[in-house]
Description:
Elements: E1 3-14, E2 17-29, E3 34-38, H1 45-52, E4 60-65, E5 68-69, H2 75-85, E6 86-89, H3 101-111, H4 116-129, H5 145-157, E7 163-167, H6 175-190, E8 194-198, H7 202-205, E9 210-215, E10 218-219
Parallel strand pairs: 3-8, 3-9, 6-7, 7-8
Antiparallel strand pairs: 1-2, 1-4, 4-5, 9-10
Amino acid sequence: MLLKLEGIYKWVNSGGRRIFLLKDIDLLVKEGEFISIMGPSGSGKSTLLNVIGMIDGFNEGTYKFLNESVHNLKERQRAKLYKEYIGFVFQSYNLIDNLTVYENIETPLLYKKIKSSERKALVADMLDRFNIVGKKDLFPVQLSGGQQQLVGIARALISRPKLILADEPTGNLNSKQSQEIMELFKELNEEGVTIIQATHSETNASYGQRIIQLLDGSRNDYNL
């Protein structure tokens, strides 16, 4: 078992009312799975990914990741787990504005204290794989949305994480790029990397071994 969520609730208070973002979510993910999360905008897909990725907390429930009780960990311990095992492809890219493309991609390797010569080789491989060698000295503001997305994906993959979380990973890519990224995810999954993606795309979702449907923060796939 890679991770297990039980009875997860997340809410915000607004105007004296409690608005649920996630309601009673149970999820068991085994190592090596490829899971697609689907649902309309506002259904809780990104929120669920952020909870799994330890970026967001939650109000009720339990979360175990590699048998660590995430809900009992201090923020520093959660951050260490995240940096060690998780690669996140954000819908909004989340690139660091004052770092170049090269430096953005290299960042996860710095957390892992990988030596300089190995970092150079790994970054060069990613730049080549995503056909962005010519962009390596540019800053995010100088890139198109699609190029920023490719940099974000390269950054998420470079440290060979145990779990990849991908929030609409091909949202800003053309159809050819989209297919290439999904085929890359498929290859990584076949090599043992666990992947959880949130997507609107039926085509992308079909790469998953199972599909989880969300509606208004609740799982809606039990009757599929």
